Amino acid sequence: MQICRDGRQSIAALSAGDADGFVAGYADNAVYMFNNGDSLAGKAAIAEYWKRRK
Description:
This protein is mainly alpha-helical.
C-alpha cells in the first residue's frame, strides 16, 4: 500500500535526521499536532522544528 510505504519512508528520513525528507509528502499548509495540544503550522515550520531537534 502506498500510504504504508510513504509512512515508512517518512519515519526513516526522520530517523536519519533528514527533516526535509520527513516533510516531503506534507502539504505546504500542513498542521502538525502534538499530543500535549501544541501544534506547528506550515510545512516549513514543521521541517525547521525537526531540524532543530537533531
